[in-house]
Amino acid sequence: MKRILVTGGAGFIGSHLCERLIDEGHEVLCVDNFYTGARRNVAHLLGNPAFELLRHDVTFPLFAEIDEIYNLACPASPVHYQFDPVQTTKTSVHGAINMLGLAKRRRARIFQASTSEVYGDPAIHPQTEDYWGNVNPIGIRSCYDEGKRCAETLFFDYHRQHGLKIKVARIFNTYGPRMHPNDGRVVSNF
Ligand code: NAD
Ligand code: UDP
After folding, report:
1. What are the structural domain ranges in the chain?
2. How much is the pTM?
3. How far away, in angstroms, is 5 Cα from ligand 1 center?
4. Residue 38 alpha carbon to ligand 2 centre in Å
5. Which residue from 60, 62, 93, 97 has its CB within 8 A of the most atoms of ligand 2, so it is best to mutate?
6. Is 12 within 8 Å of 18 (Cβ atoms)?
């Protein structure tokens, strides 16, 4: 049994992950600032002694005694991440630095929820991991795309420089129960 930190744990994907980890017998510390997520997404877990919910913004340092980290905190849909683009970049970059610092102190394995958007407006279909993308650092989507790219850079440099055990997953469009009703992407719009 591990004590696992899930940032963005009250969001769509994060809440399912919290559930899964508890089902596997782990203790979960769910950290979220409820920017796009909500307590109701994890309401069914609140009475479970293996689950703890903390309102916290990952752009600020966090000191917690955990064994593993899943870093999912970040608004994911354009309507939400463009509402406060500076905060979006801070969430990806400062959030990654803080969670990597925590992982380094704890010698904890850490996972980053990256995105297919790191490929920008790709010139190659489908994208493979050896493709570096067709990217724009100054557009209205850049706060998300470039923030996630910089987070990947930080993950790989903490791995090379400090020997951290990292996993980076470039998630493609995902949808399902507990997705924000005003998410604004094509499946939820339909
Ligand atoms: P979501 O908006 O439901 O979840 C994100 C969660 O992060 C929310 O609960 C939100 O309140 C929280 N959050 C945002 N900023 C925060 C901060 N500064 N501090 C603490 N918590 C913060 O979105 P999701 O679809 O569940 O996405 C989860 C992760 O997966 C994100 O990192 C996203 O970029 C990534 N991702 C999602 C998709 C998809 O199709 N859903 C695709 C690619 C990548
Ligand atoms: N950090 C954190 N929790 C910890 C350890 C570090 O939030 O348990 C933060 C710390 O405040 C710093 C960041 O993670 O801003 C990076 O930490 P690291 O030790 O890698 O860098 P340094 O503190 O040397 O700049």
Report:
1. 3-189
2. 0.98
3. 15
4. 27
5. 97
6. no
Q: Is 2.30.110.20 the CATH number for 3-189? A: no
For residue range 103-118, list pLDDT tens digits in order.
999 999 999 999 999 9
The verdict on the CB of residue 61 being under 6 Å from ligand 2 is yes
144 a catalytic residue: yes
Ligand 2 near 98 CB (within 6 A): yes
**Which pairs count as long-range contacts for 168-175, CB under 8 Å and 24+ apart, including other chains?**
168/111, 168/112, 168/114, 169/111, 169/112, 169/113, 169/114, 170/114, 170/115, 170/116, 170/118, 170/129, 171/13, 171/113, 171/114, 171/115, 171/116, 172/115, 172/116, 173/116, 174/12, 174/13
- In tens, the pLDDT along 58-92 reads 999 999 999 999 999 999 999 999 999 999 999 99
Collect all residues with Cβ–Cβ distance below 8 Å to 87 and sequence separation of at least 6: 35, 59
- Decide if 29 contacts 10 (C-beta within 8 A): no
